[in-house]
């Protein structure tokens, strides 16, 4: 790749090849070619004792064909009789024409391999040498302290290069000049050439912003070339260092390892004895701190107070960096000195620089008051410009260390424009001490993910006489469980059982008729067990459990397959005098099914739905159909399959009569599919036809092509990617196409024009294909219509859909619809 400054004179259409690329094109042989390794004659062997042969001399380095030719020619003209027959010639072959040309001299050989004549190659080598010497001279002058002269010489050097070679010199060429690292060539230094290719791109930066690809490849090529460059750091021009620093230090989401890259690059620049600018030094110090060298970074920051700290351009970022580092390191005294220096300067900083100091002071219990004073200073400086995010930072700083009172006061400051002081008060004022106000705070903390802080607030409010509402504490329990962390799940379970115990205590007190003054959120003091005293009594949760609390625990136990704990929870539900909900019933049925106790699941469903009056929903029936033996057992048992036929029909009847509606698209996709597959597995062919016809009316269900292929193939899911299933799916698709072809042929015979079918006709086609699949599975070739209607009538009565399937009573259909009836009725009235 040519240097960037050669782009105009030599152009893209020239035959120019630089030395590094030429080195890559030359063949590299680990051993000499066979024609060099052949046995020498007797005379040559005698002469080799006094002079090393040409082939042996080339073993230690990459062979240059021109040099080989010269050495062999020298041997030929030494007068040896045995060598007189050795004649080596080089030819150049034109690939297109096949014409060969003999190469006689080194110049001819070099011109053929590079495309450039000898004079051009010599000029390029001389230019690279002079450029390298000039850069070394500039670096030497900078090391000796002659920075002004070095800068003047560097500027003159770049101006001369631009005047002679009027091409692009890289992104922001006026600032970076020649972006090339000379002096590294050959196969061993190929990584440096790859870095040079990256530097020579016409658009490494676009509008001053590096792309994600630029950032990734910049570090990729530089990190690969570091080892080679370390052998001679002096060859790396200052412009290259500045350019690499500019790209790798770019602050962007696409540069997640920014500080690590800055740290490595700064170390390399230090090893190369390249002075860093003030801005680069600040970034290097910050990178050092983040990479774990905290004490060393702070020491470097202290030493730079005279240079960087006194510079008007870097004064503000220098002290802001010191505030952040010292605060994180725990040196609050020096951090406060730095922030005071900033605040007293003629260029005051953003007052939000005080937030790290508040966080550091709050971490020390003895300095809580001082942290509060610093917060007040920041609030005064910001005034009306203080944002909700600023308050969130302050609140989190206090909550993290358990200073809930200060955190609550900051939240009060955020919510009320007038001053309301709550610090040091045993009872909170009515404007603050109510469930609506504290509920907003808890909701905000839970939404922000500060779950531990939210529970600290719950405990603090309880000590102030404010019992958290169940809906708020249930939200915290749900958030703990959603996190999936074992520690959080344990906390959620502990708090939930405390709430259940509070509910049991309340029920017990109510039975004793000693709670006449008991209110929902202000229980009597004797609601706490008299045996619990002191801190233990204060830490006990007084919020009473609700059905939602039981539901959260039930779902967690069911997903974790803790069947015994779920049974215990259901027994306690009765003691707590809370009516079981549909969700609780579904979880317990699902747990019984997972435990292999399908009969208990069915008994529980019947008891809860018939005796207690729990209203089932679509999820209940989905769970019940999944509990059938044909869906649980790998090996089918005929006796259980026969029971599944009657059980399935009874469940379908209950499903139709129950008052529920589809609440999720997932349920709409799973329930009809599970019902049909269950009947297919149980070989209830007539029941499958009745179910499909009924679900068409009350579900708005139509079998899709994918479902038809699954049913005819007998595969539980199209997502099971095995070779056997793939073959079955392929065969199933062919069967469906054959059935559709016969159906459409009959339509044409009946007078159908044979053109493209409408959407309604396609729906009818899929229903007809479904019934053909049922006949095929039942091994019935021809079905008499009267017999089919008789079978359907009997089965529809057993399944409770006779008026829907046989009579087509629209009033009954509207009553049994499982989606938005009002929308359907409104559409009909229109």
UniProtKB/TrEMBL annotation:
Organism name: Cercophora samala
Residues covered by region (Disordered): 38-65
The name this protein goes by in its record: Pentatricopeptide repeat-containing protein
Entries under NCBIfam families matching the protein: PPR
């Amino acid at each position: 790749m040519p240097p960037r400054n050669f782009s105009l004179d030599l152009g893209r259409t020239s035959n120019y090849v630089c030395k590094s690329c030429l080195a890559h094109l030359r063949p590299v042989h680990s051993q000499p070619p066979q024609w060099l390794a052949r046995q020498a004659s007797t005379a040559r062997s005698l002469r080799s004792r006094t002079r090393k042969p040409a082939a042996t001399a080339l073993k230690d380095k990459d062979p240059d064909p021109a040099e080989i030719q010269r050495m062999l020619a020298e041997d030929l003209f030494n007068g040896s009789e045995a060598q007189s027959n050795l004649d080596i010639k080089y030819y150049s072959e034109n690939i297109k024409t096949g014409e060969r040309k003999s190469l006689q001299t080194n110049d001819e050989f070099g011109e053929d391999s590079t495309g450039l004549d000898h004079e051009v190659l010599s000029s390029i080598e001389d230019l690279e040498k002079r450029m390298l010497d000039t850069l070394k001279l500039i670096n030497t002058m900078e090391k000796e302290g002659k920075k002004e002269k070095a800068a003047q010489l560097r500027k003159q050097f770049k101006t001369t290069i631009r005047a002679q070679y009027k091409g692009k010199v890289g992104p922001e060429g006026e600032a970076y000049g020649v972006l090339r690292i000379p002096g590294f060539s050959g196969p061993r230094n190929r990584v440096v050439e790859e870095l040079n290719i990256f530097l020579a791109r016409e658009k490494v930066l676009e509008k001053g912003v590096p792309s994600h690809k630029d950032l990734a490849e910049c570090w990729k090529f530089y990190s690969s070339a570091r080892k080679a460059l370390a052998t001679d750091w002096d060859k790396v021009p200052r412009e290259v260092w500045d350019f690499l620093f500019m790209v790798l230090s770019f602050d962007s989401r696409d540069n997640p390892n920014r500080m690590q890259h800055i740290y490595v690059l700064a170390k390399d620049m230090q090893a190369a004895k390249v002075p860093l600018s003030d801005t680069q030094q600040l970034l290097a110090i910050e990178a050092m701190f983040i990479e774990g060298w905290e004490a060393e970074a702070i020491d470097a920051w202290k030493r730079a107070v005279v240079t960087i700290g006194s510079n008007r351009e870097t004064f503000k970022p220098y002290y802001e960096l010191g505030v952040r580092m010292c605060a994180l390191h725990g040196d609050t005294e020096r951090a406060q000195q730095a922030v005071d220096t900033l605040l007293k300067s003629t260029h005051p900083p953003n007052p939000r620089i005080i937030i790290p100091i508040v966080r550091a002071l709050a971490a020390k219990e003895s300095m809580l008051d001082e942290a509060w004073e610093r917060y007040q200073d920041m609030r005064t400086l910001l005034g009306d410009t203080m944002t909700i995010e600023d308050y969130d930072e302050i609140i989190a700083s206090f909550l993290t260390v358990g200073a809930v009172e200060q955190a609550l006061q900051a939240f009060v400051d955020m919510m009320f424009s007038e001053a309301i002081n709550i610090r040091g008060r045993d009872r909170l004022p009515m404007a603050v001490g109510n469930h609506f106000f504290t509920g907003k705070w808890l909701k905000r903390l839970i939404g922000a993910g500060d779950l531990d802080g939210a529970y600290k607030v719950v405990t603090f409010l309880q000590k102030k006489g404010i019992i958290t509402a169940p809906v708020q504490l249930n939200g915290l329990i749900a958030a703990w469980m959603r996190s999936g962390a074992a520690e959080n799940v344990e906390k959620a379970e502990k708090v939930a059982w405390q709430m259940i115990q509070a509910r049991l205590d309340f029920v017990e007190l109510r039975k004793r008729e000693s709670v006449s003054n008991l209110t929902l959120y202000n229980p009597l003091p004797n609601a706490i067990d008299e045996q619990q005293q002191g801190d233990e009594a204060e830490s006990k949760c007084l919020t009473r459990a609700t059905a939602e609390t039981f539901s959260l625990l039930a779902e967690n136990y069911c997903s974790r397959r803790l069947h015994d704990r779920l049974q215990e929870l259901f027994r306690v539900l009765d003691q707590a005098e809370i009516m079981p909900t549909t969700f609780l019933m579904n979880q317990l049925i699902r747990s019984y099914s997972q435990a292999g106790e399908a009969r208990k699941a069915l008994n529980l469903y019947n008891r809860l739905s018939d005796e207690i009056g729990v209203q089932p929903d679509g999820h209940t029936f989905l769970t019940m159909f999944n509990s059938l033996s044909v869906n649980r057992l790998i090996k089918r048992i005929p006796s259980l399959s026969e029971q599944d036929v009657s059980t399935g029909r009874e469940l379908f009847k209950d499903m139709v009569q129950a008052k529920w509606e589809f609440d999720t698209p997932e349920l709409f996709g799973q329930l009809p599919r599970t019902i049909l597959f269950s009947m297919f597995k149980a070989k209830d062919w007539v029941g499958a036809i009745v179910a499909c016809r009924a679900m068409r009316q009350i579900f708005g269900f139509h079998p899709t092509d994918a479902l038809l292929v699954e049913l005819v193939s007998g595969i539980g899911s199209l997502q099971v990617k095995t070779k056997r299933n793939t073959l079955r799916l392929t065969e199933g698709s062919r069967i469906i196409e054959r059935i559709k072809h016969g159906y459409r042929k009959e339509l044409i015979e009946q007078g159908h024009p044979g053109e493209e079918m409408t959407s309604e006709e396609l729906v009818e086609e899929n229903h007809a294909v479904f019934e053909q699949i049922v006949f095929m599975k039942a091994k019935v070739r021809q079905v008499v219509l009267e017999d089919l209607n008789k079978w359907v009538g009997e089965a529809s009565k057993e399944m409770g859909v006779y008026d829907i399937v046989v009579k087509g009573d629209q009033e009954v259909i509207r009553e049994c619809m499982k989606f938005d009836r009002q929308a359907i009725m409104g559409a009909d009235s229109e």
